[in-house]
Design a protein that fits this description.
The mean pLDDT is 95. The termini are far apart. The protein is an all-alpha fold. Helix 1 (9-18) packs across helix 2 (26-36), helix 4 (60-100) crosses helix 9 and helix 4 crosses helix 10 (188-207). It has 14 helices and 4 strands. Strands 1-2 form a two-stranded antiparallel ribbon. It has helices at 9-18, 26-36, 38-42, 60-100, 114-131, 136-144, 151-154, 160-168, 172-181, 188-207, 225-228, 245-254, 257-273, 288-291, and strands spanning 49-50, 53-54, 232-233, 239-240. The longest helix is centred in the N-terminal third of the chain and has 41 residues, at 60-100.
Length: 292
């Protein structure tokens, strides 16, 4: 049996106040708690308190600022990860079709892992059936031409996770061609495989509204020496590759310079709108604006 009991919004406010949090506008706080969930927003207050006792200067507005900043940062990242996802799908479909034909993806022998391959194809088939009546391009191939869907259209049925796994089980020649086209050189196929997996993690967190603020990632991206030199250095001399910043660096590698510049500008503008939010909780160094 659960030991937790229902608490009204007013009781939630009273708990926060009893723990030392300053709440200047209780009506706004009540509305925020009602619409965003006390348990969910508690994660955004961790840096403002020591266990259950808030810092003397902490306010409910601080929590709102961190929460809104994180939400808007997720939206920025989603937009630019989508650019990478579309680019990878397009390049992959082109390079694969050039060697194996547009419907060569239907032959499992062109891949290195039957189980993973079948899982991806079955998942895509379910997606095709659910979207058939609503997508003109699917109707065109399936109902009008009665043909198999070419890979450059089929990839639209795949998520970033799917294309990540499809890339992983592709032959090395395909992987290298795609990775080189994405601007990666040394050990390019291994690096892109890792990057796509890491981007899937960030993309899913962003898409499902999960907190990025002060989140520690167990699965860290593979970074070059130059990229590692841009990471935050802890007091004990070790580098911090457990926060979001490492993922920002791999996004930088996969985007065109102009697109990354736009993303960086949007993040800087967001910081200007929410000056309270300390970027160190995302793993950013104090000089990130000039170094990134």
């Amino acid at each position: 049996m659960s030991t937790k009991y229902f608490k009204s919004i007013q009781e939630q406010i009273d708990i926060l106040k009893s723990r030392g949090l300053t709440i200047q506008d209780e009506k706004r706080a009540a509305d925020f708690l009602y619409k965003n969930n006390y348990y969910r927003i508690s994660g955004y207050s961790l840096t403002l308190r020591n266990h259950d006792r808030f810092s003397p200067t902490a306010t409910f507005q601080n929590i709102i600022d961190i929460y809104e900043f994180d939400q808007q940062l997720r939206h920025i990242l989603l937009k630019y990860i989508e650019i990478i996802e579309i680019n990878v799908k397009s390049v992959y479909a082109y390079e694969f079709s050039k060697i194996y034909t547009p419907v060569g993806y239907l032959d499992s022998s062109n891949f290195t892992d039957d189980k993973t391959y079948n899982n991806i194809i079955q998942k895509a088939e379910k997606m095709k059936k659910s979207r058939l009546e609503h997508e003109a391009y699917l109707k065109h191939f399936v109902k009008e031409l009665h043909e198999d869907i070419p890979l450059w259209a089929f990839v639209d049925l795949l998520t970033i996770s799917d294309i990540s796994f499809l890339y992983k089980i592709s032959k090395k020649s395909i992987k290298t061609a795609v990775a080189n086209a994405m601007g990666l050189k040394k050990k390019s196929d291994v690096i892109l495989e890792d990057f796509l997996h890491r981007l899937t993690i960030i993309r899913n967190l962003c898409a499902h509204g999960s907190r990025l603020f002060n989140r520690l990632f167990e699965q860290k991206p593979k970074l070059s020496k130059t990229e590692k030199s841009l990471l935050f250095v802890k007091p004990d001399g070790t580098i911090d590759n457990s926060h979001l910043y490492g993922f920002i660096l791999i996004i930088r590698r996969l985007l065109k310079k102009s697109d990354f510049s736009k993303m960086k500008t949007e993040i800087i503008d967001l910081c200007d709108r929410y000056p309270f939010v300390n970027m160190k909780y995302y793993g950013f160094r104090s000089d990130w604006k000039s170094m990134l």
